[in-house]
Amino acid sequence: MEFIDPNVVDLSRFQFALTALYHFMFVPLTLGLTFMLAAMETVYVVTGRQIYKDMAQFWGKLFGINFAIGVATGITMEFEFGTNWSMYSHFFGDMFGTPLAIEGLMAFFMESTFVGLMFFGWDRLSKQAHLAVTYLVALGSNLSALWILIANAGMNVPEGAHFDPETMRMQFESFVNLVFNPDAQAKFVHTSVAGYVSAAMFVMGISAFYLLRGQHRQFAARSFRMAALFGIISTVAVITLGDVLGRLDYEKQPTKIAAIEGLWHTSKPPFEPWILAALPDDAKQENHFEVGVPLVLTPLITHTFDQPIMGMHELEDAAGPRIRSGIEAVSALRRYGVTHSDADLALFTQHEQDMGYGLLAARHAPNQDVTNIPENQIDTVVKATQPDILPNVFVTFWSFRFMVFLSLWFFALFAISAYISLKRRLEHNKLLLKLCMWSIPLPILATEFGWITAEAGRQPWTVFGWLPTFLSASSHGVSYMVFSLIGFVLLYSVFIAAELYLMFKFARLGPEHDSMEPHAQHDAPKPSAFDMHSTAS
Questions:
Q1: Which residue windows are transmembrane per the record (predicted)?
Q2: Alpha helices (H) in 423-519, listed in sequence order
Q3: Strand 286-293 to strand 274-281: parallel, antiparallel, or no bridges (unpaired)?
């Protein structure tokens, strides 16, 4: 068992977190805009009205900018699993690599192939054929998300694999269980629909900018209305499917749900409050203050009125026997590697499900070797390991709340916007239009907080219950990690600057053709760079 410098592990985590967060700025917009483009083009094909073709072409141009830069930021991430997380790749590579390979061969190639036809096929394909291409691009982008989230779900709820003591790695067992992992299905729909919320706010916010400037009124009003209706449906779906994920975490990852809820002690149903705000203290394992809503937590998480939710102190206590059992498993596995005796294999099989907890104890064992802990020190090692099963509560608790509070804001904004738009009173509600503009980046921020909740809440595991994060990294030097981290930050910052510049430029230009108002583009004043900068902030 090779131990990596803790600084290297931390830097590896930080680098992957930054590259993932950078990349995830582009993904939600890609997922959502594809189906919005398909919806606009469908109306064009059915009604024959030119303005809906203009909408599809204009928003498609902004989609193309986002898609290209999103691809550039995503490709390098897959290489990080080999360069920075080689132990994880060895241990879980079969389960993680299979869906990623399918994503590349099926979804990414499909999406990349048809996206060219979507952009350059307007005058070369029939209306119906081009519409089919647009739907295939939407399908490809969402299938890409599906396979990536199937890979991620295996890290959170390992399904379809078993540990092989001969190869010392997780072996692929069931493709059906891998694909139909309930965590994967719930995460896919939740993440995809969150992308639809991002796209709806993007279209609605830029349309609001045009309406405030008095430009492209008919184009902007139709885009705004379609985005508002699309957004309110998507927000309801996001909130509903988030509840499904919460229920799954309650069943499969109790430490994550306890951290999300800031629950240090097991709940007392049905009166346990849902904590709106608190200051969790990881060191003292307590909340310094709490503001909660009574009678909400139990039905919200358990969907009953009498099931308790285990608190973090009780989860630590429950982990004690699993850590002891895990130490037995690792010791038997070590002996089996030397003796290949049936007795050692049988003993390992008996304690196999707790092996990860034995590996987790390695940091506290003498000489970091759990196979040679003196009998009189086992209790000390177990007690020292128990707090390690918990994630960073402060980060998990608040990232989840920021995501939830922003989702409620989106619901209110979309609902009011849809109502005002249907009443045709948009241009008389300047404050609403400004709020829509200022809210453009917020759905992206909400998805980032959602990703932080999911990944920080899984700690201390890369594969939940099986492989601790501190054993998963590659054995690089600190200087190498610092150099590569700086390189990625600079490169990805250039990508973001390019995205913002191109988005601002083409959004300022607006649609090239507006059949409803042929002179509006020439008569209206040109928006300034300052105006568009305020739109993004």
A1: 20-46, 58-76, 96-120, 132-150, 193-212, 224-242, 398-420, 432-452, 478-502
A2: 430-438, 442-458, 478-509
A3: antiparallel
